[in-house]
Write a structure and sequence with these properties.
The complex is a heterodimer of chains A (325) and B (335).
Chain A lengths: L7 H26 L14 H8 L7 E3 L5 H6 L4 H8 L33 H14 L6 E6 L6 H12 L4 E7 L2 E2 L2 E2 H4 L4 H7 L4 E5 L3 H16 L5 E6 L17 H10 L2 H11 L5 H24 L18
Parallel strand pairs in A: 1-2, 2-3, 3-7, 6-7
Antiparallel strand pairs in A: 4-5
Helix pairs in contact in A: 1-2, 1-12, 2-9, 4-12, 5-6
Chain B lengths: L2 E3 H15 L3 E5 L25 H5 L4 E3 L4 H13 L3 E8 L7 H8 L2 H4 L9 E6 L14 H5 L5 E3 L4 H13 L4 E6 L6 E3 L13 E4 L4 E5 L2 H15 L4 E5 L8 H11 L2 E4 L8 H12 L9 E3 L10 H7 L3 H13 L1
Parallel strand pairs in B: 2-3, 2-4, 4-5, 5-7, 6-7, 10-11, 10-12, 12-13
Antiparallel strand pairs in B: 1-8, 9-11
The chains are: A alpha/beta (325), B alpha/beta (335).
């Protein structure tokens, strides 16, 4: 059983990260509805185990790219939640100085190469990060978090091909939440994700993305293979998307019953708690304490974000170039 | 000083910069050519022969033939630049940017700004450009205005072997992303090129020819066209200054404005399309900031607003010629 590979501290950390993502997204929704988020934002609630199950295997020198739904990957890779909340609110204290917004959160010092507003754009970028590791003789890996939508993009097909022929230490985590915006993936996707990967001679696994332990185990195999020079992998995680495509989406293309059942039956936090309880790995009180700590930390992030000043106007034209004569 | 072709100048810069810095890699379609095949290795050295010999000198890890998937390898060049390498990626014909523009325009160009100044993306994207070889509408365009339009990119269009070598070395050492466009009609032209490495800074125009009656602004292959026109005009007693901005981005606005104020008559010669093209951009710069010094309206000599045609007679009619420049200068000189 994979949970036994994890120390108690790691289990607590995994839970803390997943809970942080959940509460962050709920708070982002509240702040959006309260008029404190000037731009569009896409929420990751429901998908937490996918990001955390993978990133628990990564260190700061490993690289990830993310999607328009990127808050979860950012938190799982260690980005500062105060800076993220301020960024989403368009503040000068934001992690990108308020110039990126929700869809461009990045922290290169943490190996987070950016959320991305273009579906499928992260796949080639991650090939490049993996190529750097390979050429520079490092054991680092690079992970492209992409969605079921991005798996239909040509960029991803091209990247799978490149990663395979060059044996890159790249991992493509396809988070399949069943929808590309408001259109169901069943309606627009031919064939199976793992079969497509197999046709590129890339090992692929399909896992239940609300089961942290299943994701953790699959990611562990993929990361070990990549670090050992065994080339790329694809992990297809099946996840729920609790909110609509964007914060504020009426989400009327799914029935109320479907949405209620999803939240009731497909919750990675509840699943995690049940698992560690049944195996007596963690004390419920410790998890309750994490819940309380996380709620307080995110409330504080939101308070700080709201109170923060906007970016200085002079920053409008800085950071376009390093040097531009 | 030794005479070398434009192609040799590019090749020499790549050799010297790869030797100087292990982080520099070269990737693209057939940059070696022959990978995985039964015959010669380094069979092509690039579709135009510019990367010949790099494979032998630096090996297959740093000189990489790619699949014909521009999005993947241009995007990978960007990702590699973000994480410690300094890739020089080649798009065989700049027209092919149509299949990978997202990675250049939305990713590479914007990382630094979007990420609040924390990223640097030292990548060079080389490509051939321009008409004259019967390449037809999809292999002949002069698309530097597209890149010049995008903040975050630097854009270089050399006109001579000397400039090609020095500007490419600068591009590779530069920490910002650079799009480096080479006129395919210039590869066989020759000029003086020093053997040692040197750089030419961006944003510094070159006065190719001094003259006091009319200012000719031209870039890339059009510099030669302007020079030829200037020689003809000299016999008519019209003296032309030829100014080569060398880098559309950053553009040396100061020198263009100074020379305009000094001379007062301007003809801009450009191979890019006329609408929102480089000539239009420079014309607006002069009109806005040096209008009082103009003694005649600015004239632009550009192709028509049409795709590049195939038939030789049409292609010759498309590209600005010395004759058309002479005609424009005569009109301006009279005014």
């Amino acid at each position: 059983m994979s949970e036994l590979q994890l120390s108690q501290a790691q289990l607590l950390e995994a839970y803390r990260l997943m809970k942080t993502i959940r509460v962050f997204e709920e708070r982002a929704m509240t702040e959006k509805m309260g008029g404190n988020v000037p731009g569009g934002t896409h929420l990751y609630a429901g998908e937490e185990a996918s990001a955390v199950g993978v990133c628990m295997h990564l260190g700061p020198a490993d690289q990830i790219s993310s999607t328009h739904r990127g808050h979860g990957h950012s938190i799982a890779k260690g980005c500062d939640v105060d800076g993220m909340m301020a960024e989403i609110m368009g503040k000068g204290t934001g992690i990108c100085g308020g110039k990126g917004g929700s869809q461009h959160i990045a922290d290169l010092s943490k190996g987070m190469l950016g959320a991305n507003g273009i579906v499928g754009a992260g796949s080639p970028i991650v090939c490049g990060a993996a190529l750097s590791a390979q050429i520079l003789g490092k054991q680092d890996v690079a992970v492209a978090f992409i969605g079921d939508g991005a798996f239909n993009q040509g960029t991803t097909a091209e990247s799978l091909n490149l990663a395979s022929i060059w044996k890159l230490p790249a991992i493509f985590v396809v988070e399949d939440n069943g929808f590309g915006e408001a259109t169901s993936s069943a309606f627009v996707q031919a064939g199976e994700i793992v079969e497509r990967a197999a046709s590129f001679k890339i090992p692929a696994m399909k896992v239940d993305g609300v089961d942290f332990f299943a994701v953790y185990q699959a990611a562990g195999e993929a990361v070990s293979r990549a670090r050992a020079g065994g080339g790329p992998s694809v992990i297809h995680t099946v996840v729920p998307r609790y909110f609509g495509h964007y914060a504020g989406d009426p989400d009327n293309y799914r029935t109320a019953e479907e949405k209620a059942a999803m939240r009731k039956d497909r919750d990675c936090l509840k699943r995690f708690r049940a698992r560690v309880d049944e195996t007596s790995l963690l004390d419920a009180a410790a998890l309750d304490q994490i819940d309380a700590d996380v709620e307080a930390a995110i409330a504080s992030a939101a308070d700080k974000g709201r109170a923060a000043p906007p970016p200085a106007l002079e920053s409008l034209t800085t950071d376009v170039y390093i040097r531009y004569v | 000083m030794p005479q070398k072709t434009f192609r040799q100048a590019i090749n020499e810069a790549l050799h010297q910069e790869m030797k100087r810095d292990d982080r520099v890699i070269v990737m693209g379609e057939d940059v070696a050519g022959g990978s995985g095949a039964s015959g010669d290795k380094d069979a092509w050295g690039g579709a135009f022969g510019c990367t010949k010999g790099l494979l032998g000198a630096f090996g297959p890890a740093r000189v990489r033939d790619t699949p014909i998937t521009e999005s993947a390898f241009i995007g990978a060049a960007g990702g590699a630049a973000l994480t410690g390498l300094r890739p020089v990626a080649e798009i065989m014909y700049v027209d092919f940017v149509g299949v990978c523009l997202d990675q250049i325009m939305n990713q590479i160009a914007k990382f630094r700004y979007m990420f609040g100044g924390t990223a640097s993306t030292p990548v060079v994207i080389r490509a051939s450009y321009g008409a004259g070889r019967g390449g037809g509408s999809q292999h002949s365009q002069s698309l530097y205005p597209i890149f010049t339009h995008i903040p975050g990119l630097k854009v270089v269009v050399p006109s001579s072997p000397y400039d090609a070598k020095g500007l490419l070395a600068q591009a590779i050492r530069d920490d910002d992303p650079v799009v480096f466009l080479e006129s395919k009609m210039l590869y066989n032209t020759t000029g003086e090129v020093p053997d040692g490495a040197y750089t030419i800074p961006f944003g510094e125009a070159n006065i190719v020819r001094e003259g006091g009656d009319v200012l000719l602004v031209a870039i890339g292959r059009m510099v030669g066209v302007a020079e030829e026109a200037a020689k003809t005009l000299e016999t008519e007693g019209i003296s032309c200054c030829v100014l080569d901005p060398r880098t559309p981005s950053p553009l040396d606005e100061d020198t263009i404005l100074e020379k305009t104020e000094e001379i007062g008559r301007v003809v801009i010669v450009d191979e890019s399309y006329p609408r929102c093209g480089l000539a239009a951009d420079i014309s607006s710069l002069i009109a806005e900031r040096a209008f009082p010094s103009l003694k005649a309206p600015i004239r632009k000599v550009t192709p028509p607003h049409s795709p590049v045609p195939y038939a030789p007679v049409l292609e010759r009619a498309f590209v600005p010629t010395p004759d058309r420049v002479v005609e424009a200068v005569r009109a301006v000189a009279k005014g």
